[in-house]
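Long-time lurker, first post. I've been practising inverse folding by hand and with some scripts of my own, and I keep getting stuck on stretches where the structure tokens seem ambiguous. Below is the full token string for one chain I'm working on. Before anyone asks, I'm not after the true native sequence, just a reasonable design that respects the backbone. If someone could post their per-position residues I'd love to compare against what I wrote down in my notebook.
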């Protein structure tokens, strides 16, 4: 099952990952609970809902976070690797913005960024 919304934080559609100027709704615990309820009632009816939310049909018998009243677990994410680092989909989310910023700075900053962050990460990624 391929997700239509691959981001674990927001509901950005796959075909719009590079649209940095747009905002998308946040994934919520309520949506996950409702999708799980539908999945438990009728699996075939839940497939499109799960896909649209970027969720997999994994049944969890007990989730302690869902038991806490008035908690919004989705708002507790302090750092999102998918949007911030070169892991995941950095090239679609942040790379274009970074290139715009670097184009307005002296060339030495682009060179420094490449030497300190990009080249070492490529080297270590190939080794593992």
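-- Answer (accepted) --
I ran through it position by position. Result:
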């Amino acid at each position: 099952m391929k997700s239509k919304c691959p981001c674990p934080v927001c509901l950005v559609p796959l075909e719009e990952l590079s649209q940095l100027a747009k905002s998308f709704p946040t994934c919520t615990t309520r949506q996950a609970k409702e999708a799980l309820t539908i999945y438990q009632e009728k699996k075939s009816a839940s497939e499109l809902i799960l896909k649209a939310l970027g969720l997999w049909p994994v049944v969890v018998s007990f989730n302690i976070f869902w038991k806490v009243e008035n908690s919004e677990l989705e708002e507790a994410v302090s750092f999102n690797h998918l949007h911030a680092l070169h892991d995941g989909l950095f090239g679609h989310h942040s790379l274009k913005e970074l290139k715009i910023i670097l184009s307005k700075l002296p060339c030495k900053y682009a060179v420094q960024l490449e030497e300190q962050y990009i080249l070492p990460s490529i080297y270590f990624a190939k080794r593992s």
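A couple of notes from the structure itself: DSSP finds seven helices and no strands in the chain. Residues 121-128 have pLDDT under 50 and may be disordered. Happy to go over any region you disagree with.
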